[in-house]
């Protein structure tokens, strides 16, 4: 910035930027501050969680009894499709990006994200995409009903909403890629002096690896849905057998994106849990280095297992064996992580405040999801269970009890730092137990439904599946109301500043640079980067 000389010859800085936040709507629309953008991501993700949740409850209401109750099968298929797309691309991923925006600069001692305006752009791109996704229900022919995987040839038979969906996915992908570039550049170039890569908090590590995954696979998804678009409108036949195309090729391309995508949705969760468990066990994390290598191994292996989603497509036995063994191999680094968390808790001075409850609940229920994944990795078993409710149970144990539980853990853990207010411990614990019990009541019976042969994405079912479906539907409504409770009685009071004032470091054994700034974290932090001492356990003044 050029210095202007005043009439005394002294340099008078023409301050083009205010040092505080802008006021009113401008603060949010033109936000370049990582904390404001992180807050917007989190609120956006919660809004999408509610929309996706309403669709899920429509599905469970329809499945409460055999026969068709409320919705025709076409609309039911739209619900399953849009529930999946909105939860994955609208709720889970943006929520983790919100955490990244809030926490990575604080954890590595950076003043902000590397590209502040691009950060703003990558958030605001999501709004039109979300409107297009949610609005597709009101387009001619209704929302896409091809399943969230958007398999050909169904996608070639959908109405105009399919094109809106493809456009929305492109925009969300562009947003993800920009966010990832921002995260990588921030982590690699803006760490405080003395913070080597191997001294970074694991949350920063998991996001660094996740960001590389996103940059690698988002263009693959873009390719798959662009080929779908040209098949629909421009006379190509990538996926049309009549023109020499192959619908199975779509599945290969989609799952080459889709499998790394499931790790994109769980690796940041591992980072959050790795921050919380040591804090409440009052011990350093066991095996930090092995955790970093395990995270990287999961990311690398995620690229060679895609066809385990496709055992039923007529793959040669050699291919089945390769994908089976590669998939089982991923259990090793995942098991290393579980072992390290348990070893951290072993003989620690543990207390169970709400963040720790969520973290321990995560480890327990996520492990169950991991075991059902191991079962599905075996080709002969999977051919029986493919596209049944067993698969639905498996991936909800990983995505709800995995990603979502870790997100809640993170909100309770870092929320006091964000808002400057402590949540009500009683309400937090109520939210946890209510969610944990309702979650298991909802999804555990689905294993039995799947083993008995109930297919997924069906609006109707034979009489013998009634009991378990009714239990699941009741659990689903209970789980949904638990999240409304969370918003009204935990999030809203914290955002309004109602409650006990949070100390700078609310958790006695918490470690990291984020606890060196006041609560709530001021608008600008670390304008002069902190210097870390040799052991990197405390900050030098």
Largest sheet: 2 strands, antiparallel
The amount of beta strand, in percent, is under 5%
Compute the number of helices: 16
Which structural class do you get from the secondary structure elements? mainly alpha
Rg computed from alpha carbons, rounded to a whole number of angstroms:
24 Å
Strand order of the main beta sheet, please?
Answer: 1-2
End-to-end C-alpha gap? 29 Å
**Poorly predicted runs of 5 or more residues:** 1-7, 9-16
Overview of this protein structure:
- The structure is a single chain.
- This protein has 541 residues and is an all-alpha fold.
- It has 16 helices and four strands.
- The protein has helices spanning 25-29, 34-62, 73-108, 116-124, 126-135, 161-189, 202-233, 247-264, 267-281, 288-301, 317-345, 354-377, 379-385, 389-419, 425-451, 466-495, and strands at 3-5, 11-13, 531-532, 539-540.
- Strands 1-2 form a two-stranded antiparallel ribbon. A two-stranded antiparallel sheet has the order 3-4.
- A hairpin with a 6-residue loop joins strand 3 and strand 4.
- Helix 2 runs antiparallel to helix 16 (466-495) and helix 7 (202-233) packs parallel to helix 10 (288-301).
- The longest helix is centred in the first third of the chain and has 36 residues, at 73-108.
- The two termini are 29 Å apart.
Brief summary of the model shown:
The protein has 541 residues and is mainly alpha-helical. The chain has helices at 25-29, 34-62, 73-108, 116-124, 126-135, 161-189, 202-233, 247-264, 267-281, 288-301, 317-345, 354-377, 379-385, 389-419, 425-451, 466-495, and strands at residues 3-5, 11-13, 531-532, 539-540.
């Amino acid at each position: 910035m050029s210095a202007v000389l005043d009439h005394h010859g002294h340099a008078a800085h023409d301050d083009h930027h205010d040092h505080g936040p802008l006021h009113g709507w401008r603060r949010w629309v033109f936000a370049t501050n990582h904390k404001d953008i992180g807050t917007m991501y989190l609120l956006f993700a919660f809004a999408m969680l509610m929309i996706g949740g309403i669709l899920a409850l429509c599905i469970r209401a329809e499945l409460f009894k055999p026969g068709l109750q409320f919705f025709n099968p076409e609309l039911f298929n739209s619900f399953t499709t849009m529930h999946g797309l909105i939860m994955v691309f609208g709720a889970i991923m943006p929520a983790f990006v919100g955490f990244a925006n809030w926490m990575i600069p604080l954890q590595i001692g950076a003043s902000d994200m590397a590209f502040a305006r691009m950060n703003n752009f990558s958030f605001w791109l999501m709004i039109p995409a979300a409107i297009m996704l949610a609005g597709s229900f009101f387009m001619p022919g209704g929302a896409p009903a091809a399943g969230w995987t958007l398999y050909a040839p169904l996608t070639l038979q959908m109405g105009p909403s399919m094109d809106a969906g493809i456009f929305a996915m492109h925009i969300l992908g562009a947003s993800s890629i920009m966010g990832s570039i921002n995260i990588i550049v921030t982590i690699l170039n803006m760490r405080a002096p003395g913070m080597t890569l191997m001294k970074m908090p694991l949350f920063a590590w998991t996001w660094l690896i996740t960001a590389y995954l996103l940059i690698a696979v988002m263009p693959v998804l873009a390719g798959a849905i662009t080929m779908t678009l040209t098949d629909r409108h421009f006379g190509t036949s990538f996926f049309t057998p009549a023109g020499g195309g192959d619908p199975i090729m779509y599945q290969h391309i989609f799952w080459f994106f889709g499998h790394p995508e499931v790790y994109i949705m769980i690796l940041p969760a591992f980072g959050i849990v790795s921050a919380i468990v040591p804090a409440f066990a009052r011990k350093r994390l066991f095996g930090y280095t092995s955790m970093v290598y395990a995270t990287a191994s999961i990311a690398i292996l995620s690229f060679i297992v895609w066809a385990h989603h496709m055992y039923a497509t007529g793959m040669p036995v050699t291919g089945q064996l390769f994908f089976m063994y590669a998939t089982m191999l991923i259990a090793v680094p995942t098991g290393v992580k579980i072992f390290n968390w348990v070893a951290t808790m072993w003989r620690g001075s543990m207390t169970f405040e709400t963040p720790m409850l969520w973290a321990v609940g995560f480890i327990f229920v996520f492990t169950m999801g991991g075991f059902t994944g191991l079962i599905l990795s075996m080709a002969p078993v999977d051919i029986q269970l493919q596209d049944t409710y067993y698969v639905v149970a498996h991936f909800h144990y990983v995505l709800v009890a995995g990603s979502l539980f870790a997100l809640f853990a993170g909100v309770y853990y870092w929320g006091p730092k964000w808002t400057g207010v402590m949540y009500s411990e009683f309400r937090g614990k109520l939210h946890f137990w209510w969610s944990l019990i309702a979650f298991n009541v909802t999804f555990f019976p689905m294993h039995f439904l799947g083993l008995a042969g109930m297919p997924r994405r069906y609006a109707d079912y034979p009489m013998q599946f009634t009991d378990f479906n009714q239990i699941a539907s009741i659990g689903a409504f209970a789980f949904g109301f638990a999240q409304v409770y969370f918003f009204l009685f935990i999030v809203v009071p914290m955002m309004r500043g109602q409650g006990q004032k949070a100390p700078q470091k609310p958790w006695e054994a918490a470690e990291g640079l984020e606890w060196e700034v006041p609560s709530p974290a001021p608008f600008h932090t670390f304008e002069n980067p902190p210097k870390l001492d040799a052991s990197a356990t405390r900050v030098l003044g």
